Structures are given as structure tokens and as C-alpha cells.
């Protein structure tokens, strides 16, 4: 028995001594339980017996020393013994109860342990099932997120599934299979977002035309606003739309081309697809695919077919709108993303497209022959170019196309002018134009820059020098210039070249068509018609100066220098040809009169009157000058007189010197002198007395033949003074006759 048990037992006995009535069973229970737990019953009994013997010895000693006390002690001892017996019985009963209860507790404990083991297994199974169900639920949620087009959430779920949850269940076969399926599921997400992106591209392709239409309409509004500003301030005429000055002065609010009441493009599918590819580390693949798709769409736009042959420009405008819409979308993408669509890539795509666009437009313009339709096409084309330029695209490649458009349009205007001019000439009577009222006169003055002329009678009706063809032609020329510069309106950057084309085309029009047609008319035998052509040419020559002023007023404000039309000189040269043609006709008529001349060079008498054919010829010249040639400038009429009389004088000289004339007597010379005197008198009555000089050679011949001293011809001083026009060979010939 341990010292502790002994001490407890001693304490129990000591306590019993103090209070015999108190059995101290509360303390006895734990001691007995400890004894039974440690299986030391025998030791306990031995100690208890030893304790009893010890106490008996003490009692005996006490009895010996004090009997009374001994008796009391015996009584107490008996009580203790009785208590001990009772205690023993209780201990036995308690032990039985404890043994019985212990067996039940042990059985329950075994059941509890088994139950807890089962519960633990169940808990582990439940936890595992919950983990597996969560994994499967997340895998299933990925599919739902893809169906709901929440692709980024699907990727994040896959990442969480792969990096967190699958690792906890990787020992299971389904988890391994699911782990292997992660790349496939990521690929499915990529395919789904790519499919949505393709659908978005298709929708963008469908609305690109509408976007382009809106963008071009906005540019037209800016053009109209700028026209009003230019009208108020002509110094802005050379400033184009989209220039820094125009952009500063443009007070209108910004208009969202891709998000408005008419069209709405949601770029979320693009941004989402870009984000997904970035998360998958395949950004370059997406860039490459997008570039290929957009290039294919650009080729699809370029493959559109349209024709201008039937005067329908809708297909042409739709083509331009599709191009603008396509590159407006590209502009928005470049400026709304980072490190995805660079400006260089878009510019490269634009460069590859622009050459085809220019070719398609150029070929389509070959089918257009209507100037009015061409004008509409030009405005659409200019709006197209300015819109793209406003979005930062390089439009220099359109320069040659623009110049081609101007040249084509000017050629069409020139062709229309030629048709109208030929029609005008067809109905022109080549007679001075009659005017019956002041209103008609004002209309003519306004049409052809006409100024008052002394040749025009006052009052109404009155007659203007030129024929109806001249004001009609001037009106058509003005219309040509106005239409051309209306066509050129809006492209101030090309003004210098446009001005040059206008001048060159107008020059060609005047030279090749107006002057060319009038030149072809000079073959006519109708002198009145040729005279009218000369008068018209005179006014056309003067009109060139007015046209030069008109072109200068239309040209770009920053250009200086003079404008000189070559047509003015051509008209002058043609006028000289016309004058020469009149000379030919008049001289031909004079030749007809000369054929009537029947000179008798050896008559028997001297005639008192000049030859009859000279009278007829003088009357003819007078009539022609006063009627047919009346409206010609005086200088031309004098020149015609001089040329005609010179031709007559030359013909008469040739007649005298002709080999057919064998002999001339004094009477023949006298008759010739009468004719020469008549002609000189006729010439002196004309506007310019110097016209009579045409007969100087004839006069010298007559003077020499009538001279009493013909040898004076041999004197150089006399010959130079009196016979300067006579050739020695002719003089010898005359003396021989």
C-alpha cells in the first residue's frame, strides 16, 4: 500500500476518533475506488489489519494507563469495528455495483468508439462527396457561364478549379480526367468567345455602310457650315475643311458616329475577346486572326459591283459609305484599345485598299457620261476623301484621281459645249443680231460683256454687230466656267492644278472648237458670212480678256500673276485668215471684171470716158464696202480697199506687160491714162487717201510712156524720183511695144 493510501487511511481513522458517529463515507469512497482501480485489496486489508493491531496496542496501553479511558476506547473500538464491518459490506456492495457499471461503461465505450469511427468515415465521405460535388458543380458552372457569355468568369472558374479544388481531389480518377480536360474547356471558352467575335464582325460589316453614311453626312454638314463662314470671310476660301483653322472655328459639339440614334455598335465582344485571348496568353493569335478577318471583309467591300452607266449613283455612294464605315470602325478600335491594333497596321491595310479603291472608282467613272451625275459623284467623292482625312487617313493617293475627275468633267463640259455651239452655228444666220427691246439688249450685254459701239444705232429695234452665235457662245462659256468651278468647290488644296486645268480646257475649247469651227467656215464663198465671222472673231478676241478676268476672280485667292489665254492670239490669226479670204473673194470678183476688159492697145482715137468694167468694178467695191463690209472695222475696210485696188493695179500692169500685147500706140496709152486717172480719183474719195498709192506703178508706166524725154529714165536720180517702182526689164518690154 502506498504511503498516500496509508496517510488517507490514517486520516480516516483519526477522523473516526474525533467523531464516532460520522462514518466519513464521502472520503472512504474515493480511497476504495483507488484500491480497486489499482487492484490492491489484499494490501489494503493487510494495512487495515496492521492498523487495527496498532490501534489495539495503543488501546491496551491506554487501558493500562487509564482503565476508564480504556473502557471508553473499547466501546469506541467496538463501534469502529462495527463501522468497519459495515464499511466492508458497503465496499463489497459498492465494488459489485462498480464492477457492474464498469462493464456497461466499457461496453458503451466500445460502442461509442465504433460509432465515432463510423461517424468519422461518414464525415470524411460526406466531405469528399461535397468536394467532388463542388468540383463537378464548378465544372458545370463553366458551361453555364459560357452559355451566359460570361467568358472571363468561366476562365477564372477554370483557373480556381485547376489551382485549388482539383488538387484536393486529384487522388480520384474523375479529378484526373477533369484535370486533363481543363485545356479543352479553355479551348471551348476561346471558341465560344471567338464565335461571338465573328458574329460581332458580321454585324459590324452589316452596319458599316450606315456608319459611313452618317460620317459623310456629318462631313457634309461641316462643309455647309464652312461655306457660310467662307462666304462671310473670302480669305478663308483656300482653307479646306478638316484643317486646323476649320477645326478651331467649328463650334459644333462632337457627334459619336458609332453610338447615336441611328446606329449603335457595342465593342464589348471585341474587348471581351481580346481580354480572353490575353488571359490565355494568345494575344498575338487573336491579333493575327482579327487582321485576317478584317482584310477579308475589306476585300468583300471591294468586291461590290455597281455601275454608273444608267445614271444611278446609289451603288457608287454605297461603296464609298462602306469604305468610310469600315475605316471609321478601325479608327475607333485603334483609339480605344492598347497594344492591339496599331495605327501602322491600319495604315498598311488602308494602303492596300486605297489602290484598289482608286482603280474601281476610275473604272466606274469611265461609264459615266452625264455631267450632272458626274457633279453628284464628285461631291460624294470629295466628301468621302475629306471624311477619311478627318479620321487621320492619308489621302494623297487620291490626288491623281481628283485631277482625273476634273479633267474628265472638263472634257464632258467641253463636249457638251461643242454640241451646243455646233447647234448654235447650225441655226446662226451669220447676220448682225437684231434687238427688239431693252430687256433683250440687257440680256445680251450681260451674256457677252458687250460694250456700246459707235456702229450701233440707238433706239429699238436696233442691230448689234455680231451674230446670234456670239452671245450664245459666251453664255455657254460662262456656264462652262461656273459649272467647272462649282465642280471644283470644296477642294482648295487642288486649286492651283484646278485653275490650270480650267485655263487649259477653256483655251482648248476656244481654240479647237470655237476657233476651229469658225476657221472651217472660211472656205465659204459667201462674203457676208465671212465678214460676220471676222466681226464675231473680233468680239471673241475681246471676250478673251474678260474671260481672263473671270478666271482670275475664280482662282485661288493666294495665287498671283496674270492669266493669258492663247485663244486670243488664235482668234487674231484666224481673223487675219478671214481677211485674207475676203481679199481672195474680192480679188476673184475683180478678176471677173478684168475678164470683161477689152483693151485695144492701138486704137485710132482716144476715149473720153474710162472703161465700162472699171465703172462696174468701182460700183461693186462701193456696194460691198457700204453694205457687206459695213460693220467691219475701218482699218480692215481700208486694207480691203487697198488690197483690192492693188490687185487691180497689178493685174492691169500684167495686162500691159503680157506677151499677148505686141504693140501699144499713143492713143492706147492715153486711154490707159484715162482709166488710171479714174481709179486714182475713186481711191482718193475713200476714207484713206493713201489708198491711191496702189496705182503708183501704173501711173509711173503711163507717165513714162507719155514722156517726151524717155531717156530721163536712164538718169538714176530721175529714175528714183519718178520711176522708182518700174523694173528695167519691164521698161525695156514697154519700149519694145
TrEMBL record:
Gene3D superfamilies recorded for this chain? Dsl1p vesicle tethering complex, Tip20p subunit, domain D (1.20.58.670), Exocyst complex subunit Sec15 C-terminal domain, N-terminal subdomain (1.10.357.30)
Please give the start and end residues of each transmembrane region: none
Q: Name a Pfam family for this protein.
A: Sec15_C
Primary role: Component of the exocyst complex involved in the docking of exocytic vesicles with fusion sites on the plasma membrane.
- For this entry, list what GO says about its biological process: Golgi to plasma membrane transport; intracellular protein transport; vesicle tethering involved in exocytosis
Q: Which family does it belong to?
A: Belongs to the SEC15 family.
List the GO cellular component terms.
exocyst; membrane
All copies of domain Exocyst complex component EXOC6/Sec15 N-terminal, residue ranges: 47-216
Q: Indicate the segments annotated as coiled coil, or none if absent.
A: none
Repeat is among the record's keywords: no
Signal sequence range: none
**Species for this entry:** Rhizophagus irregularis
- Protein name as it appears in the record: Exocyst complex component SEC15
| Keyword annotations of the record | Coiled coil, Exocytosis, Transport
- Give the Exocyst complex subunit EXOC6/Sec15 C-terminal domain ranges: 398-737
Q: Does the keyword Transport apply?
A: yes
Amino acid at each position: 500500500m502506498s504511503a498516500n493510501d496509508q496517510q488517507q487511511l490514517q486520516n480516516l481513522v483519526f477522523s473516526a476518533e474525533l467523531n464516532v458517529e460520522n462514518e466519513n463515507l464521502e472520503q472512504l469512497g474515493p480511497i476504495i475506488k483507488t484500491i480497486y482501480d489499482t487492484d490492491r485489496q489484499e494490501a489494503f486489508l493487510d494495512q487495515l489489519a496492521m492498523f487495527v493491531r496498532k490501534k489495539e496496542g495503543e488501546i491496551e496501553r491506554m487501558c493500562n494507563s487509564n482503565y476508564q479511558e480504556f473502557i471508553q476506547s473499547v466501546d469506541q473500538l467496538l463501534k469502529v469495528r462495527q463501522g468497519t464491518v459495515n464499511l466492508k459490506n458497503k465496499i463489497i456492495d459498492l465494488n459489485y455495483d462498480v464492477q457492474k457499471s464498469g462493464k456497461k461503461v466499457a461496453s458503451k465505450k466500445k460502442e461509442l468508439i465504433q460509432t465515432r469511427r463510423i461517424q468519422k468515415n461518414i464525415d470524411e465521405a460526406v466531405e469528399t462527396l461535397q468536394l467532388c460535388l463542388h468540383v463537378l458543380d464548378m465544372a458545370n458552372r463553366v458551361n453555364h457561364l459560357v452559355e451566359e457569355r460570361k467568358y472571363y468568369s468561366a476562365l477564372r472558374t477554370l483557373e480556381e478549379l485547376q489551382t485549388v479544388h482539383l488538387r484536393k481531389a486529384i487522388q480520384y480518377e474523375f479529378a484526373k480526367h477533369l484535370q486533363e480536360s481543363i485545356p479543352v474547356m479553355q479551348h471551348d471558352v476561346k471558341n465560344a468567345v471567338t464565335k461571338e467575335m465573328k458574329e460581332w464582325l458580321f454585324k459590324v460589316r452589316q452596319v458599316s455602310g450606315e456608319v459611313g453614311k452618317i460620317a459623310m453626312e456629318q462631313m457634309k454638314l461641316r462643309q455647309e457650315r464652312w461655306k457660310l463662314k467662307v462666304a462671310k470671310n473670302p480669305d478663308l476660301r483656300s482653307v479646306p475643311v478638316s484643317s486646323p483653322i476649320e477645326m478651331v472655328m467649328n463650334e459644333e459639339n462632337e457627334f459619336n458616329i458609332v453610338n447615336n440614334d441611328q446606329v449603335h455598335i457595342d465593342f464589348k465582344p471585341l474587348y471581351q475577346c481580346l481580354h480572353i485571348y490575353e488571359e490565355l496568353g494568345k494575344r498575338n493569335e487573336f491579333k493575327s486572326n482579327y487582321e485576317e478577318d478584317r482584310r477579308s471583309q475589306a476585300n468583300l467591300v471591294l468586291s461590290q459591283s455597281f455601275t454608273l452607266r444608267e445614271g444611278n449613283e446609289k451603288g457608287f455612294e454605297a461603296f464609298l459609305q462602306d469604305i468610310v464605315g469600315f475605316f471609321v470602325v478601325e479608327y475607333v478600335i485603334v483609339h480605344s484599345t492598347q497594344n492591339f491594333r496599331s495605327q501602322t497596321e491600319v495604315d498598311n491595310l488602308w494602303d492596300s485598299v486605297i489602290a484598289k479603291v482608286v482603280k474601281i472608282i476610275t473604272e466606274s467613272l469611265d461609264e459615266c457620261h452625264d455631267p450632272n451625275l458626274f457633279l453628284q459623284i464628285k461631291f460624294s467623292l470629295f466628301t468621302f476623301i475629306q471624311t477619311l482625312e478627318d479620321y487621320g487617313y492619308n489621302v494623297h493617293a487620291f490626288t491623281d484621281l481628283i485631277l482625273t475627275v476634273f479633267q474628265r468633267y472638263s472634257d464632258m463640259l467641253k463636249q457638251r459645249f461643242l454640241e451646243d455651239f455646233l447647234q448654235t452655228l447650225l441655226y446662226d444666220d451669220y447676220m448682225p443680231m437684231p434687238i427688239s427691246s431693252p430687256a433683250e439688249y440687257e440680256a445680251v450685254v450681260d451674256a457677252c460683256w458687250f460694250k456700246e459701239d459707235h456702229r450701233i444705232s440707238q433706239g429699238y429695234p436696233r442691230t448689234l454687230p455680231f451674230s446670234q452665235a456670239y452671245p450664245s457662245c459666251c453664255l455657254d462659256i460662262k456656264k462652262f466656267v461656273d459649272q467647272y468651278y462649282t465642280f471644283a468647290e470644296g477642294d482648295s488644296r487642288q486649286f492651283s492644278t484646278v485653275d490650270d486645268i480650267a485655263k487649259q480646257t477653256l483655251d482648248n475649247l476656244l481654240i479647237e472648237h470655237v476657233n476651229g469651227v469658225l476657221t472651217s467656215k472660211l472656205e465659204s464663198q459667201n462674203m457676208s458670212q465671212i465678214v460676220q465671222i471676222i466681226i464675231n472673231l473680233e468680239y471673241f478676241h475681246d471676250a478673251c480678256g474678260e474671260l481672263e478676268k473671270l478666271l482670275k476672280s475664280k482662282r485661288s485667292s493666294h495665287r498671283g500673276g496674270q492669266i493669258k489665254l492663247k485663244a486670243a492670239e488664235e482668234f487674231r490669226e484666224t481673223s487675219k485668215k478671214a481677211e485674207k479670204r475676203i481679199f481672195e473673194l474680192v480679188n476673184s470678183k475683180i478678176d471677173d471684171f478684168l475678164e470683161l476688159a477689152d483693151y485695144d492697145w492701138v486704137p485710132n482715137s482716144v476715149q473720153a470716158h474710162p472703161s465700162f468694167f472699171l465703172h462696174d468694178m468701182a460700183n461693186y467695191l462701193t456696194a460691198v464696202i457700204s453694205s457687206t463690209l459695213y460693220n467691219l472695222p475701218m482699218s480692215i475696210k481700208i486694207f480691203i480697199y487697198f488690197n483690192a485696188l492693188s490687185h487691180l493695179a497689178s493685174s492691169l500692169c500684167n495686162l500691159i506687160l503680157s506677151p499677148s500685147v505686141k504693140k501699144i500706140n499713143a492713143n492706147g496709152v492715153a486711154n490707159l491714162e484715162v482709166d488710171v486717172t479714174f481709179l486714182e480719183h475713186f481711191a482718193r474719195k475713200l476714207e484713206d487717201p493713201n489708198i491711191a498709192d496702189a496705182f503708183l506703178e501704173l501711173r509711173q508706166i503711163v507717165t513714162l510712156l507719155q514722156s517726151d524725154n524717155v531717156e530721163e529714165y536712164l538718169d538714176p536720180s530721175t529714175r528714183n524720183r519718178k520711176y522708182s517702182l518700174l523694173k528695167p526689164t519691164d521698161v525695156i518690154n514697154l519700149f519694145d511695144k
